[in-house]
Design goal:
- The chain has 238 residues and is an all-alpha fold.
- The chain has one domain.
- Helix content is 75%, strand content 0%.
- Helix 2 runs antiparallel to helix 3 and helix 3 packs parallel to helix 7.
- The longest helix is centred in the middle third of the chain and has 30 residues.
């Protein structure tokens, strides 16, 4: 029978090992990438102070854009990486269901993504523009969550993590191209509940935002489910 201390120590080691397997050196590169991105923007803000960020711009440029890029980066080779290391078949041969194995990995990625976005939102608040960084970070997580789940689905169907990333980027470009058409509707991925259009009643806008976020959560869960169902036919992805 394990003591509480032994249980906590074992759990910590398990989480540390799992993180090392899932993310490897990704977190280090992610940290330096965010630091360089924010450093460049901060330098631009210092040397061109008249071109600061508005609240809307801060949310898009400083939180949502890097958040969706991180979503693709963290998820693109979640399956391809195991295939490249010849460990994919081993994961299927364990006693644990592959739904549990990959579900834990997806949840781990989403947790890291959430913490990263909230950290970026907080950092953007202190360095660039004052905005409700708590709600702003939570709002930015929804599109990142959607893109992460979509990238995971692509990573199952594609043999290359780069191909999955390119497909996800292609979908993201299409979403951004259609932004002018969809920005005032419930179908826009980057809908901002805190900024209703002047022509739309606030209650109506809140209802649209709720439907939008609910649809994103459901669709993201379906992407992961279809990906896991596809992995049942593992001979097609090895």
């Amino acid at each position: 029978m394990l003591t509480w201390r032994e249980l906590i120590t074992t759990l910590f080691r398990f989480l540390k090992l799992s993180s090392a397997i899932i993310f490897h050196r990704k977190l280090v590169f992610m940290f330096f990438g965010i630091a360089i991105y924010y450093g460049i923007l901060y330098a631009v803000a210092i040397f061109r102070p008249n071109e600061g960020f508005s609240v809307e711009q801060a949310l898009h440029i400083l939180v949502e854009a890097p958040g969706t890029v991180l979503a693709i980066y963290l998820t693109m080779d979640l399956v391809a990486g195991e295939r490249d290391k010849d460990t994919l078949e081993i994961l299927f041969s364990t006693a644990t269901s592959h739904y549990t194995t990959w579900g834990i990995r997806v949840v781990a990625v989403l947790c890291v993504l959430f913490l990263s976005i909230m950290s970026m939102s907080t950092l953007a608040y202190f360095l660039f523009a004052e905005f409700p960084f708590g709600w702003g970070g939570l709002n930015a997580f929804f599109p990142a969550y959607f893109i992460a789940c979509l990238t995971f689905l692509f990573s199952v169907f594609c043999r290359s993590g780069n191909a999955a990333a390119m497909l996800a980027l292609g979908i993201l470009v299409i979403i951004l191209v259609t932004a002018d058409t969809l920005s005032g509707t419930s179908y826009f991925l980057f809908l901002n509940p805190m900024s209703p259009p002047g022509t739309v009643d606030e209650d109506v806008w809140l209802e649209r935002a709720i439907y939008n976020r609910a649809a994103i959560v459901v669709m993201g869960a379906l992407f992961v489910y279809f990906a896991l169902r596809r992995m049942v036919f593992r001979e097609k992805i090895l």
